[in-house]
Amino acid sequence: MALKLTCPQCGQRMTMDFATSRVYCQHCGYVRPDEIAQIERKEQEVKARGTHPHVEITHKGEISAAAMAAFETGHDLLYAGRKPEALQSFRRAADLQPDFVDAHLWIAKISDDPAVKRDHLDSVLVHVPNHLEALRLLMVLQGRLTPEQAAQTYHDHDPQVQPVAEPVPAKGTELLCPNCGGDLTLNERAQRVECRFCGYSAPRTNHSSNGGDLLALALLERKAKAVKWNVGKRLVQCQQCGAEHTLTADKMSQRCRFCGSTEVILSDALGSFEQPDGLIPFSLMADEAMACVNKQLGSLGERFLNLFNSNKIERSVIDGVYLPFWVFDVQAKVTETHTVGFQSTELTGLEEQQDVAICGVKSPPPTLTSHLAPYDMARVVPYEPKWLAKYPAQLYSIDFDTASLEVRGIVSKALRAKHDRQLAQLRAQSREDAYRSGELQEIIQITSQIQSMSFRLILMPVWIATLYEDDGEVRLGVVNAQTGRVALGRASKVKP
To answer: Model pTM?
Structure first.
């Protein structure tokens, strides 16, 4: 519907648009003077009311009508170019419903204050620890990702694995005495690095307080990279004598065959591996570890096996090594569903599983290394190359993302078992009461869902024993060099 008016400029009829209250002449373009200042604002409001893009809501659960109204108003204002007012509306939505994660997310998106961004991203992650959009914004804010790299993480493809045929140049450091240049060694009893020539002793390192990296952050960082390098060998030059050495991909340290100095790899040209976060020093000496192996060989289980295989140990060799372990802290939501007849009620709560350790190497095999835990994680010290002065270290061949999949299964199984034990008596009592009263039995089911995971890379002390039997077969054993826990493998023929 249009209202006909006479144009004072050309005498033609003018038209009024009721949607914008704009009165104008289609013939000469005349607009009434008192309306000119309002036209642009009114047109923007009309545009904002009906055409701003759809905004995805990530909040799980109910949203109050008042909070949603403030949130939608914020987007209307933002689309109209009124950013300060939009920010106020998003703040009002967050105030009305503090757990409304999308309100906090949009405050972080449009605020120019880094402190405000961080505060509201933290609010999102408190309620949804694995909120990917908030994690991306946080990583950009921290400088861990560039905006361009963060944009690359929206795809569903993992980085392309690229094998490297030639040895990759690596940077290393020698473990030499800062006073006399002599080789350093490790005093396990005192847990100090010492020089046997001049008596230098490295100061004791405080225990580590590193809480680890969030798995979701590390996975996003991994996805931002186009290529994941599969390195077979690394080339390192001895800083003491200049000799070049080629190390296989599983080695982190090695003694120079010419001058005897210990070389520890710090990085390579492709950035293909992560440095450890911490290390647990050796507590057991070789003879003590071998005593633990002999005790295990004399156990009831081993004597039972000897009924079928009476081969004796002819000789043994034992070597100390640091093996890399991915150590996870996991937070999970546990839900108990109580069902009586057709009625169900749910009880939920958060539980934590700490120090779930997965060995990061394939040799020794997981059938052995999985039995080394637990380690006393209170004894972890920050990693420094000097700790490898006496015992070599292996680099991980199983990455954190693969290890995390195994952890999910371990934690879910452990939580279900824990709650099953706690509810066993309750279930028994419920069945007895139901039988006596003739009422329906209560059925209780337990489910768990991982909410967040953090992880560290820790070098664990391990003694590896090779046991040679008198019939030519060989058995492999591993010993936790902190607790003396032993795991023995099966005997097998030595491959020619």
So the answer is: 0.75
